[in-house]
Amino acid sequence: MTARRWRLDLGYDGAAFSGWAAQPDRRTVQGVLTEAITRVLRLPDPVQLVVAGRTDSGVHARGQVAHVDLPADTSADALMHRLARVLPDDVAVHRVIPAAPGFDARFSAVWRRYTYRLWDDASRPDPLLRRHVTLVRDHLDIERMHVAARTLVGLHDFAAFCKPRDAATTIRTVQWIGVSRAGDAAGTVEVGLRADAFCHSMVRAVVGALVAVGADRRSDRWLAEVLSSPVRHSQVIVLPPHGLCLEEVGYPPDDQLAARAAEARAVRTLPIPTPHPPSDQDHA
Amino acid sequence: MTARRWRLDLGYDGAAFSGWAAQPDRRTVQGVLTEAITRVLRLPDPVQLVVAGRTDSGVHARGQVAHVDLPADTSADALMHRLARVLPDDVAVHRVIPAAPGFDARFSAVWRRYTYRLWDDASRPDPLLRRHVTLVRDHLDIERMHVAARTLVGLHDFAAFCKPRDAATTIRTVQWIGVSRAGDAAGTVEVGLRADAFCHSMVRAVVGALVAVGADRRSDRWLAEVLSSPVRHSQVIVLPPHGLCLEEVGYPPDDQLAARAAEARAVRTLPIPTPHPPSDQDHA
Fold first, then answer.
1. Are B276 and B199 contacting, i.e. CB atoms less than 8 angstroms apart?
2. pLDDT digits (tens, 9 = 90+) for A243-257
3. DSSP-assigned letter for residue B183
4. CA distance B78 to chain A (A)
5. Among the four residues A35, A117, B60, B76, which has the most C-beta atoms within 10 Å?
6. Which of B80, B123, B129 best probes binding to A when mutated, by most A CB atoms within 10 angstroms?
7. Identical fold at B3-98 and B111-265?
8. Where along chain A do its domains lie?
9. CB A13 to CB B84 under 8 A?
10. pLDDT of B111 higher than 70
């Protein structure tokens, strides 16, 4: 039977998952979802899910996007309703639609947007948010963090902020960083980041560095020095995963999906040569 | 030693509490907080906490207000920091300040504002919100709920929506009801209610009735008929507690605190006599 590609929009509470990527003997989002789809459609072999952002252990997602190739006669509505019945309540598939031609959840994406949530009030975090915010001991100077963040925007080698991986470039284009206080809870500071892709642990390390500046423990100049480091920087603290959430993934118009996927698969390089071999990491 | 009155602003995740009010052998917010304050201040007798909204089992609070009389030499900062160390992470005291003369957390309050959160998308609720939203099977017509809610605004006997209690009036003034879709999550519908006070289970029953209208299972006329019922109405469904949160409590300017407290302690009556004896319930 011919296969058809479907786009899945989903979210999960990362607390009880060892991240997205399937691993033997670990509870992962990919593992749970693969098992559920394969079972409700009574397929002979496990489906192959491809995701936009392969989140780490404990990281949440609200706007994750995946694709999967399924038999052409699959009913999207039936699949969604059956999944709602069998999936545990810490993962939800919000939408199942036919993918446009050329769509690849990972390689067609032009950006990923993450939010890291911090709590810097003297008191304990709002109990309703406690599983999704990270407590910071110092009061944060939001304006200072916002200004410092400008140093990081643009095309850079983010090796200083990344867990090294074999055969993986750490060159990325950060398109936007926004720092703001959330209106509904006094102590909540949200750091939003958008980039073409993120390397492993990058968001949590970048926010850790911005917190150091916002708490007046480090200067703007220090941040620039860190950024220029060709290897992981020892003074950068990687914040815990529970404050991080993949909020949204951006795709180009349908007629550019295939071209974008081909482009993203190609080598990412800086204008000047670097010692890093090319790759396509998009972890956070 | 002379005592001084303090105002506490606090929040809690209601999931693991049997409500606010202390009960023997039950974990309650009042019980946990009383024990913690008494212990960190090394007081000989348990402190007496008075709260603005005595929330039911499972109901959350983000803007709860309490008062407590403590020895005059108590340091608010020290108390807050010690509480942050000893309190469990599902309750947080965000602020401790000296209460203005005449302040009574319960009787000085001029309004309580609650939000009930619903999820009406075909899929399962956003996993990050699942503990604080109630899943509704039908798609909700927000505009229709908003219009129907007007029937309920004003001074009415809300007996139809209240769990009967001995010696308790069910006459309340609902000042505002707002129904809206929350921007950040596709399926989230928020129903906000503000009243001078609420009788027992009233918010959850009112929202249950509005959901019946929004889902086209009941008419506006039905809602008016329900409201006119002098006793609890059998067709009204009381929604589960985990969707409900006490968001904010309103107080008058400091120079009116004492007068307001005296007024609230007095009998609440409709312009016409009712068979209900007076009381001062403010449950939800």
1. no
2. 999 999 999 999 999
3. T
4. 11
5. B60
6. B123
7. yes
8. 3-98, 111-260
9. no
10. yes
CATH architecture of B3-98: 2-Layer Sandwich (3.30)
Rg of chain B over Cα atoms, rounded to whole angstroms, equals 20
Q: Just list the catalytic residues of A.
A: 56
What 3-state class would DSSP assign to B47? coil
Four-residue CA torsion sign, A47, A249, A54, A246: negative
Q: Is B269 helix (H, G, I), strand (E, B) or coil?
A: coil
Question: B276-279 — which CB contacts under 8 Å span 24+ positions?
Answer: B276/B157, B276/B159, B276/B168, B276/B169, B276/B170, B276/B171, B277/B167, B277/B168, B277/B169, B278/B167, B278/B169, B279/B165, B279/B167, B279/B168, B279/B169
Nearest CB among A90, A123, A184 relative to B84 is that of: A123
The string of pLDDT tens digits covering residues A136-145 is 989 999 999 9
Question: Between A124 and B223, whose confidence is greater?
Answer: B223
What gap in Å lies between CA A205 and CA A197, rounded to an integer?
A: 15
Q: What DSSP string runs through B54-123?
A: -PPTT-EEEEEEEEEEEETT--HHHHHHHHHHHS-TTEEEEEEEEPPTT--TTTS--EEEEEEEEE-SSS
pLDDT band at A274 (very low <50, low <70, confident <90, very high): very low
Give me the pLDDT at residue A184, please. 56
* CB neighbour list of residue A195: distance below 8 Å, 6 or more residues apart: A111, A112, A172, A173, A174, A175
Residues whose CB falls within 8 Å of the CB of residue A70, separated by 6 or more in sequence, listed in order: A3, A4, A6, A37, A41, A43, A47, A79
A–B CB contacts, 8 A cutoff, strictly below: 83
For chain B, the distance separating the N- and C-terminal CA atoms, rounded to the nearest angstrom, is 37
Half-sphere exposure of A203 (CA within 13 A, CB side): 35
Q: Which chain B residues have a beta carbon less than 8 Å from that of A13?
A: 127-128, 130
What is d(CA A141, CA A170) in angstroms, rounded to the nearest whole number? 29
Alpha-carbon B264 to chain mean position = 16
For an interface test with A, which of B12, B120, B124, B242 has the most A Cβ atoms less than 10 Å from its Cβ?
A: B124
pLDDT digits (tens, 9 = 90+) for B78-98: 999 899 999 999 999 999 999
How far B122 CA lies from chain A's nearest CA (Å)?
A: 8
Cα distance between residue A229 and residue A224, in whole Å: 9
Rg, Å, chain A Cα set: 20
Question: What would the CATH number be for the domain defined by A111-260?
Answer: 3.30.70.660
d(CA B147, CA B179): 9
The structure's pTM equals 0.86
